[in-house]
Design brief:
Low-confidence stretches: 5-13, 379-387
Strand order of the largest sheet: 11-12-13-14-15-16-17
Order of helices and strands: EEHEEHHHEEEEHEHEEEEEHEHEHE
Number of domains: 1
Helix content: 10-25%
Shape: globular
Largest sheet: 7 strands, mixed
Mean pLDDT: 91
Amino acid sequence: MTGSSPRRSPLAPLRPDSFGADPAGERLERIRRSPNYADGEFRNPVPTRTMVPGATLPILRTLLSRADRVRRAPVRPVPVHRPSVADWGEPPASGLRLTWMGHSSVLAEIDGHRVLFDPVWGERCSPFAFAGPRRLHPAPVPLAELAPVDVVVISHDHYDHLDMPSIRALARTGTRFAVPLGVGADLELWGVDPKRISELDWHESTRVGGLTLTATPARHFCGRGLRGGQRTLWASWVVAGPEHRIFHSGDTGYFPGFAKIGEEHGPFDATMIQIGAYSEFWPEIHMTPEEGLLAHADLSGGTPYGTLLPIHWGTFNLAPHPWAEPAERTVAAANVAAAKIAVPRPGMPFEPAADQTIDPWWRSVALPPAHGWPSSTGATTATSQTS
């Protein structure tokens, strides 16, 4: 499917292609036919505000506070693990292995296939090379050294999930791309062959080798340029192979739809769920750690099943909360719920089927809370469950 027009901006000469392309032609007609599109924009599954009224000034005060700036970033280098032949040289014994690359970027090795979610290897999640949120740790492995992947999955078009330099590099490898409706316009602008793009509405699926990839609902929004309007879709994703099933939340606020996704596509051997960049100023578009754990449970019928990998934290400073707080709160919530959780260092592969021992590595590089770290993270989480 083709049809796109470059977005225009008074700032465009700085990095003209970074803003992407507006859907046009046949692509735009398909968007207009979507049941999730009305009155010129995509709609969330439930009413959603991107920000609460009156939040602008409190946000600015928080972001400009020196004390808050110190808390919102690591105070020492993040201990990144560089994957080696010992890590990736052999296929996973269980058939499923995940490697969190930081933020929402995850390499999933599932049933003999390699799936790369939301690859962001750029230095900044911004349309500009000189401004915008900068990485707090390097990528665990250069993108050029990452072995070929079968498919790249994109959750939505925000800069911290859809990175132009990374997409351009991956386009040269000949990989497939699975994206929500409208996002294909950006990929085509950046050199991806339209024949390698599967552009899906919610509840639509595509096949890549022995895998079925399904775009599922999420509660969020879109946008790269300076124009308003929700012209591209956002999604969570289900990837199902002959033996394993995994779920990637993308960015989302909590909503009742997780339970239906679980009913239709679960149970999941692993879920990758957004638990960072939350705020009281935008409570409906990002989940707190506790909501992320609740979504994980909803996806498995109310009782946590499979392994939860927390994502969307630790790599970029995008919210007022302390840098290490998402990990601490997620582990605490998982312990209360007896849920199985893995919180690896960036770049450290793990197999969800194995028992997971929590090493609170983030504590060694973060500013401690005022009352100190809790005495225990609950060092070992629940072992593998069976359905």
